[in-house]
Amino acid sequence: MPNLAAPKPRVLLARRIFPDIAARMAEAFDLDYADDDQPLSPEALRQRLQGKLGLLASGTEQITAELLDACPELRVISLMTVGHNNVDLAACSARGVRVSNAPDVLTETTADFGFALMMAAARRISESEHYLRRGDWKQWRVDLFAGADIHGTTLGILGMGRIGQAIARRGALGFGMKVIYHNRSRLAPEQEAPIGARWVSKEALLREADHLVIVVPYTPASHHLVAEQDLALMKPSATLTNIARGGVVDDVALARALQQGRLAAAGLDVFEREPQVHPDLLACANVVLTPHIASASVPTRRAMCELAERNLLAAFSGRPMPSLLNSF
Ligand code: DGY
Asked: Which domains does the chain have, with CATH numbers?
């Protein structure tokens, strides 16, 4: 029987979410709702967190050791994103602050989008649409926007976690692609076999892939994992798709490779200084650019918010959090 007299936990909901989910949270918690699409500034976040026990945040709010020290009552941080590079997890663990993210619920949707972005880059869909809208289309031409094939080519996946494997399945089973991947750890043989996936070195991946899709988490170790010298190994006919995080790819080096014809095309959903996009990338016709929306289907974005809500509810009712990140 819930103790109706007990005060509700004080929680900050730091980003605008779906109204019905926010309304439900307002019943369960003593909720301070930052009902805005504009992220709180670091100072506003610090102020609004005073006295709060819980925080529901996105991948944008920077959770640093300094912020935690300034908000000593904070016990639980629940992210609505799977990526958690905005949170200093070690600092949270050291202070006993539990942190959860939103894995699994976005895997298939994000893989759909990664595949779509790869196909759009290879088949020059954005570039040709802009041409048509500008009124430049005067006649059919045998090589008009002739791009690269997807079926039967080699799909290279950098980062073979849940989303990487979901992309590999699409490539192997739907498009007859040969799948190679590079990851710190190899998949078990029974995971590799159904999709014919083969682990290769990073160098071999870059050299052999016709279409490279990047899905590694962003950490200090993966900063500029794909830089000038890596791009130089790729086939000039290849495409590169990044749905991981800005910073994994050196955007300036990528723009140079695209401009100089050392890479055929790219599909980018994430950027080093997003929401700013490097002007050299904006100037490239052969890149498809999207505003960090790989997981943005309505059901999936709702599921991400609901998982974040469930994590908070579990934490404050003494149950295990479904996707706790700390290993205390
Ligand atoms: C995630 O969940 O990490 C997606 O990139 C959305 O930010």
From this structure: 10-105+298-315 (3.40.50.720), 107-289 (3.40.50.720)
